[in-house]
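Deliverable D4.2, example record:
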Amino acid sequence: MKVDYIMPPGPIAGAPAQAERAAALGFDGFFTAETGHEPFLPLVAAAQAAPQLELGTAIAVAFARSPMVTAYTAWDLADLSQGKFVLGLGTQVKAHITRRFSAEWGSPGPRLREYILVLRAIWSTWQHGEPLRFEGDFYSVSLMTPFFNPGPIAHPDIPVAIAGVGPYLSRLAGELCQGFHVHPFHTVSYLDGVTLPAIAKGAASAGRSPQEVDLIGSVFVVTGRDDGEMAMAADVVRQQIAFYASTPSYRPVLEHHGWDFGDELTAMSKRGRWAEMGGVVPDEAVEEVAVVAPPEELAAAVRARYGDRMRRLSFYGLVPGLTTLGDDGWRRLVAETRGQADR
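Output generated by the structure prediction step:
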């Protein structure tokens, strides 16, 4: 199991120092998310500051960019990082695509499938010099003149990892991708009952093994040095679970467990009662979604839950307990989670 550092929200000027620190603490990878900043730019700085780290987006919004734009960015990052870049893509939801990015929405699953195929057609043209021609239902590309062709690179096989919750995107990952970003709002029961079987089904349809798809997970944890810190961490996680559970896109997890608090949370969110929403989430849901353990037992608890499932793992957010670990505590946590006494 590899352990990744997720760059928290903040100015991208901090990326070089954060990458250097992540490498010093033993992390394997440095990943960015598309939140308040462009996700690719910090990876350029991280590649130069800590070239030993693997890099990736977790995730970049596909439909906010044309496939050609994403193809150029990923190609350059793969070259800059000497093949250590993982392109993580997600669909987002209709409101953000149409109202925030002013882009087209419709058939997100099939559209993402075609998006990946277009990327690979473009990359193949650049690497092998073959004519560019892709005609699909959503995207068509047929022009690549020498002036705009970056040419071949040493590491052209760029891994693509997509994010999703429902079975369609899990099947798509099995069919076409090298990785699947597991949303932090998940449970082991949902992984075993829905996600992994769907990946296996998609892989079988393409004559692949599901082992060719790395599960990349960001996990909630509840940890602390005493009961007070544990309670504070639980409240933070409870509030975050409430936020996700209020969104219909994540309803399959609730339905899988028979949890009936989604409609109430959705109604509260529409009335702006965000601060109260955490109180609706029961302890059972917190314990199913988050790994609950004191710091000295956290790595073992994470490995017990995910060791046979996840290939890459990161810790979601800065909850109380994690923020007080200090550098030595982080080094131990990362090393023990990776399955090593030290690094």
